[in-house]
Design goal:
This protein has 394 residues and is α/β, with parallel strands linked by helices. It has a domain of 202 residues: Glycoside hydrolase/deacetylase (TIM Barrel). The chain is built from 18 helices and nine strands. Strands 1, 2, 3, 6, 7 and 8 form a six-stranded parallel β-sheet that branches. Strands 4-5-9 form a three-stranded parallel β-sheet. Helix 5 packs parallel to helix 7, helix 5 runs parallel beside helix 12 and helix 11 runs parallel beside helix 12. The protein is globular, with a radius of gyration of 37 Å. The structure holds nickel (II) ion. The site of nickel (II) ion has 6 residues, from loops.
Length: 394
């Protein structure tokens, strides 16, 4: 009996097991399109059905079924449609770069002498352009005549173009007339190249005397940090010197745009300086934003000036700018600085010229005092600066 009972029970169990899937299959069949809702079935069905293919979006099979097979009104997912047109407009993050200088933050002015050089000036400009940085180029007039293209590009990028005399002579050895003629000749080269005659002049070798300092109608600027790149011709040496210099806030760094080694160093230093938090500004920007004064004609900005002045509490706006203050607006500066900087410089001399007395004294003294004396004014250079004129001559 027991065996019979066991057999009966086993038979029932087997029947149940067989009937289970069958009923489930029937249930599925009666439900119409429901099966796809089971998670496991969706991927396979997606391949079989034609709908998803039409949408061409195999990545979202779940969503593609709901609207097609079930009642549209039941699916709140459809409400997503109106959002779609709003998202496309997003791809407009490519706004033009707007350069903003914050006078309250660290800034340093990179300067390059002796160019322009077709290859290395452009290599340096490449780096500046890539990093949205500006620098000041003290160019030799006769080199500008020979290679005007880099100068034009400097102007386009918004870099400051300054004069380094016409023939790279020791200006402190020239008579006043010759001195002025040399600078005027250089100015003509800049004009012929299509840029404004510079208001800033850096005398070759940093050599100055009273005439050079205060009788040219220009602003005379030297530097505070001498990389001696012309001496080492070694990119790593220049990089090491700048990176180990210490605080560069408010400094004017001297380099030369006629060496491959310098261009190589710049490729490393520009991004590095920015990573350190320095804003790379032009000399005029540094004077205005850091030292609080626009370059004055017949004034000498040498090592003594920079080492005896600190960051100003009242940054001055550049001509054409509206607000200089601590906040500095973001709108116009970038665009205006580019084309206006050179022009602005040319305009500056007018106002202050009247109040300048040195200009009147210099000419009077010139005849008497003028001697080819190497006035110890060159001592006003940065400590490490003892350039060898012979090595500098183009
Ligand atoms: Ni030079």
């Amino acid at each position: 009996m027991k065996k019979l009972l066991m057999c009966a029970v086993t038979m029932l169990l087997v029947l149940c097991l067989i009937a289970g899937p069958a009923s489930a299959a029937r249930a599925a069949g009666s439900a119409g399109g429901v099966p796809p809702l089971s998670a496991g079935a969706v991927p396979r069905l997606a391949g079989e059905e034609g709908d998803p293919d039409e949408e061409g979006d195999p990545g979202a099979p779940d969503d593609s079924y709901d609207p097609d097979e079930s009642g549209d009104p039941d699916e709140p997912g459809d409400t997503g449609d109106p959002e779609e047109p709003e998202e496309p407009p997003v791809p407009e993050p490519e706004e033009p770069y707007v350069r903003v200088i914050d006078p309250s933050k660290p800034m340093v002015a990179l300067t390059f002498d002796d160019g322009p050089h077709d290859t290395w000036s452009n290599a340096i400009l490449d780096v500046l352009e890539e990093n949205h940085a500006l620098a000041t180029f003290f160019e030799v007039g006769r080199n500008v005549r020979a290679h005007p293209e880099p100068v034009q590009r400097m102007a386009e990028l918004g870099c400051e173009i300054a004069s380094h005399s016409n023939a790279h002579k020791d200006l402190s050895k020239l008579k006043k007339k010759t001195l002025i003629k040399d600078l005027d000749t250089a100015d003509a080269a800049f004009t012929d190249a299509g840029v404004e005659p510079p208001a800033l002049v850096r005398p070759p070798y940093g050599a100055v005397n009273k005439n050079v300092k205060s009788a040219t109608g220009r602003s005379i600027v030297t530097w505070t940090v001498d990389t001696e790149d012309w001496r080492s011709r070694d990119a790593q040496a220049v990089i090491d010197y700048v990176q180990n210099y210490g605080d560069l806030d408010g400094e004017i760094v001297l380099m030369h745009s006629i060496y491959e080694s310098t261009a190589d160093a710049v490729r490393v230093l520009v991004p590095w300086l920015q990573e350190q938090g320095y804003q790379l500004v032009t000399v005029t920007e540094l004077l205005a934003y850091y030292y609080g004064e626009l370059p004055q004609p017949d004034r000498f900005y040498g090592y003594t000036y920079f080492s005896s002045h600190g960051r100003t509490d009242t940054p001055v706006p550049l001509p054409g700018e509206t607000v200089p203050g601590a906040g500095v607006p973001a709108e116009e500066p970038a665009e205006e600085e580019t084309p206006d900087t050179p022009a602005a410089l040319a305009d500056e001399p007018e106002a202050p010229a009247e109040s300048e007395s040195p200009a009147e004294e210099a000419p009077a003294e010139t005849d008497k005092e003028w001697k080819p004396v190497r006035v110890p004014d060159t001592v006003d250079l940065a400590p490490a600066s003892i350039p060898n004129p012979a090595l500098f001559m183009p």
